[in-house]
């Protein structure tokens, strides 16, 4: 393996702040941490916190080769504190101007309905936001997630189609909006056709366990292939309507704003093809023969291949080996063998979906004010010592 000068410079630019942060983290071990508004534990070896109610998975803490993310490693993205809902008081209301007969289900009634289990990923639209400033030099609003607002789970639940049929749909039905029971209501509509898709479900189990509190207990929607914001947690109602409801999550948030976008701003739906190196940022590894691991995922299908650049994304001269499960709209692990001399290098993966879509080059990556859908390949800085 050759370490190119360009890659070395890129590495130094990228790693710059990182070494300092790493050093500070070591000395600040005893410092009291900010309070958490989440239920689950957030060990610093597993999560990077973003404020009181958001936590990004350190991908390097995941069990290599196991596609499904353990529940206690799954990223959490909340707009407020996790509501602690009681399954005895909870109801699912199916209602709205386009529902024939409103229905109210108890938790027991919901879990008694026939279920499906689907293994799919969720990813926050803001995942990769840090790279807008780090790689493109563009300032954007929002928490600086790297790659860890991504997780895969086997979701068990009831298809939305089954639930909507319980209420019956009027001919006018065109939109379905799951409504969350957060302290400040969170809701986001989807077109009826998306709600009726076989793998759009109301999940009440995650990886074989009862849905954890932070991930939406007692029930959450899973809308595979769409930005995480569509997968509403703590669902209390499904509202069926003839017209598209206007709520913050499709008017102000999760829309593309900026010089490149006109008004009304495009509403975000489908996610983008991505890949990541599962190592600390920056990473320090012993020189010599090394196996580098990473993940790749696509909202469209399986991953066909992962190309690797060792010169900061200029040329892609290597191909990674895909390992373990490679599931559509979930992802795959990949690995790369390297014989690395001491020195600084960047490793840049680029995923290709089985149907053709791939990651745009950095020069094609358009910025947007809120830093959504960063899709370009990311040069991951590694120092071999
Ligand atoms: N009710 C409710 N649903 C929600 C949210 C929320 O704040 N409230 N956040 C959304 C966002 S932005 C994302 S990315 C995913 C995160 O799901 P997770 O926390 O289970 O990873 O949940 C979505 N569903
Ligand atoms: Mo999100």
Automatic annotation (TrEMBL):
<dbReference type="InterPro" id="IPR014756">
    <property type="entry name" value="Ig_E-set"/>
</dbReference>
<keyword id="KW-0560">Oxidoreductase</keyword>
<feature type="region of interest" description="Disordered">
    <location>
        <begin position="351"/>
        <end position="372"/>
    </location>
</feature>
<dbReference type="GO" id="GO:0020037">
    <property type="term" value="F:heme binding"/>
</dbReference>
<dbReference type="InterPro" id="IPR000572">
    <property type="entry name" value="OxRdtase_Mopterin-bd_dom"/>
</dbReference>
<dbReference type="Pfam" id="PF00174">
    <property type="entry name" value="Oxidored_molyb"/>
</dbReference>
<dbReference type="InterPro" id="IPR008335">
    <property type="entry name" value="Mopterin_OxRdtase_euk"/>
</dbReference>
<keyword id="KW-0479">Metal-binding</keyword>
<feature type="domain" description="Moybdenum cofactor oxidoreductase dimerisation">
    <location>
        <begin position="273"/>
        <end position="361"/>
    </location>
</feature>
<dbReference type="GO" id="GO:0043546">
    <property type="term" value="F:molybdopterin cofactor binding"/>
</dbReference>
<dbReference type="Pfam" id="PF03404">
    <property type="entry name" value="Mo-co_dimer"/>
</dbReference>
<dbReference type="GO" id="GO:0030151">
    <property type="term" value="F:molybdenum ion binding"/>
</dbReference>
<dbReference type="InterPro" id="IPR036374">
    <property type="entry name" value="OxRdtase_Mopterin-bd_sf"/>
</dbReference>
<keyword id="KW-0500">Molybdenum</keyword>
<dbReference type="GO" id="GO:0006790">
    <property type="term" value="P:sulfur compound metabolic process"/>
</dbReference>
<dbReference type="InterPro" id="IPR006311">
    <property type="entry name" value="TAT_signal"/>
</dbReference>
<protein>
    <submittedName>
        <fullName>Sulfite oxidase</fullName>
    </submittedName>
</protein>
<dbReference type="InterPro" id="IPR005066">
    <property type="entry name" value="MoCF_OxRdtse_dimer"/>
</dbReference>
<dbReference type="GO" id="GO:0008482">
    <property type="term" value="F:sulfite oxidase activity"/>
</dbReference>
<feature type="domain" description="Oxidoreductase molybdopterin-binding">
    <location>
        <begin position="79"/>
        <end position="244"/>
    </location>
</feature>
